[in-house]
Amino acid sequence: MVETQTPPNPGQPSPAKTTQVEAEMTKVVNENKSWMRFSSKLVDPEHPIRQEILFILIVILAIVSVAWGWAHGLNLYKAGLNPNLFHESLGTVMAILGVTWSYFKLYRTSDSFVAAEEARDAAEEAEERAKKQAEQDRKDAAFSKIVVSFESAKTFEERTRIMGDLLAVGVESPSLRQRVVNALKTMNDWMVDSEIFLRDQNLVSWRLKNALFETSSRFHENSETQDASIKVINILETIIRKHLEEFIAGHNTATLDLSGHCLPTLNLSAKEIPPKCLKMINGYFWQSSFSESHLSDMSFAGSSFYGASFWRATLENIDFQDVTLKRGKLRTNLQQVKNLNREEFFLTKEWDLCLLNKAQEAEFFGEEPSEQDPHFNKWISSKIRRDKLYFGIERI
Length: 396
Known about the structure:
Shape: elongated
Order of helices and strands: HHHHHHHHHHEEEEEEHHHH
Low-confidence stretches: 1-8, 38-43
Strand order of the largest sheet: 2-4-5-6
Largest sheet: 4 strands, parallel
Oligomer: single chain
Distance between the termini: 115 Å
Mean pLDDT: 86
Helix content: 40-55%
Strand content: 5-15%
Number of strands: 6
């Protein structure tokens, strides 16, 4: 059997040539891919190529190009062939723009630059924290000395002088403010023991006009003790007002705790008292004033507001659990007050001019009020005045 060979087609390349062409095409494709990878390295800030080195190369290239351009241009200028040096100036501007662009896009985003910036910022923050801590330690040490001196003072004059230092600390140092308030608390503890006598006296005149009470069988405190308490009330009221200002301005977020304090005649009229600014539970705030103030999300639980005024105050989500309100003045919208005691409510002045919600009315006067109830009759007779006072306010 004779094998026949198929002659090659003149229009078709031989297998050897085909293999060579494919190899050359593969080489070209690989070279293109390599160039694309290299090009991507130049613009990818996260690639291992060090961008600061690339920036230095660009700066060197820009300097060399500008220097060569000006040297060549000046030679032509001297020969009279380049009268205005326009191209050299344009090249210089372009080089400066190129260097500026590479500085922000390459150098400032390089790993070394970013690491150096982070290290510098961390060092500055650490230094700032160390300074603040040192300053706080200095203040703590100075304050501790003031407290020790205050507690060990033997004369009224010496204690009064140290009160001035405590006032300065309480006003100027928010971090030590609570400690100042706590340090002064015991100065008014005697007033709690004399509550039955004091709360029915004119404490506003006692404080503002220095109309001190004389000692008697019912009252035994001397003038120095009373005068010291008046100074304490003045100091704490100043500190509280300062705290309110800083809290509203956002400079201080701490809650100033006045729980258990005896601060009669505290005047916070026409003030904004936001949530978590003050804590006033189980305290004694006889004849204090919150008239026309705006109070939000506070608890007065267990506190005595004997004779205090909440006239036209805005009370939003205020807890009056076990609060004493006898002889106080409300005459305001009480619809958002919680746990208001029926007996205490009727012991206030002008209670019939307060606005109550439906649940409060049912609790205070009963589901089916009786016309024989003097409280209910007074409530009904004051309806026209209430409607005028709270015109446009929806009852909830």
